[in-house]
Amino acid sequence: MTDMKTRLRAVALSLSFSLACAAGAAQASPVPDYPFVHVVGSAYTAVIPDIAVLDFEIVATDGDPAAAKAVLEARVGEIRALMQQLGLDPEDAVVREVRQSVRKGEQAPGGGPLYELRCDVKISVRNVSSWPALAGGLFGKPNLDGFASTFDLGTMQQTNDELVANAIADARRRAEVIAAASGRRLGAVTAVTPDAIKNLSTAMGLQRDDFRFERRSGAPDRGNVDREQLMTITAIRLNQPVDVIFRLENLSGARPRPLKKP
């Protein structure tokens, strides 16, 4: 029994040593051991969004918290009434919890503390043709502040898949040029690494990548927001890069053709 345990231990040590050697050999060979070409391809598109989100706050102040809350509820009713007039579903307006605080250094007209009540509102717009009327109708209304917009595409996943396919096709075109210039023939794809898709509109600051649920100190008020910019539906510009490795054929294994006798 002892001999059997000793043999099993020896086999396990030998297997561990072999795996460690194989892993070391793999790390020592960061590039393929066959002739290859490594290229970067890319694909670009600009699409008009069909989904939009409008995010803002309702803010009301009063010496009586109940009166301030009544103002919030009245504004929510006006918002949903406008949505119904525009053919939008009022239920697509989500109102988050009301936050109450006391403004420091300020008092109500009749004396006593001045209460401030805030709530976040998120409106999902499934028909962007109504966007200008909705954004323009709400902008500048009393008690509404901190406007932010987000645009998206309902078929974004399909668009991303098409971009990856087009980027790989672009990489193949580049690789074929390199192979032909070297007198070789392009072989099969051996590795593909798609990089994260880049939303150029967001990267250039032309569009928010998400709407904010929590407000930070110093958030811009409606006086600093461009009304025309808020109402404009901006195209989404997407760029998809990929790294591709192709095998090169007809290299060392190719034999020169014999010369024909005259």
Report the count of strand segments.
9
Span between N and C termini?
A: 80 Å
Mean pLDDT: 79
Class from helix and strand fractions: alpha+beta
Shape assignment:
elongated
SSE string: HEEHEEEHEHEEHHE
State the major sheet.
Answer: 5 strands, antiparallel
SS summary, helix count: 6
Strand fraction equals: 25-35%
Which percent bin holds the helix content? 25-40%
- The protein's oligomeric status is single chain
Point out poorly predicted stretches.
Answer: 4-29, 203-223, 254-259
Radius of gyration: 32 Å
Overview of the structural elements:
- The structure is a single chain.
- By secondary structure, the protein is of the alpha+beta class.
- Helices cover 35% and strands 32% of the residues.
- It has 6 helices and 9 strands, in the order H-E-E-H-E-E-E-H-E-H-E-E-H-H-E.
- Strands 2, 3, 4, 5 and 6 form a 5-stranded antiparallel beta sheet that branches. Strands 1, 7, 8 and 9 form a 4-stranded antiparallel beta sheet that branches.
- Strand 4 and strand 5 form a beta hairpin.
- The protein is elongated, with a radius of gyration of 32 Å.
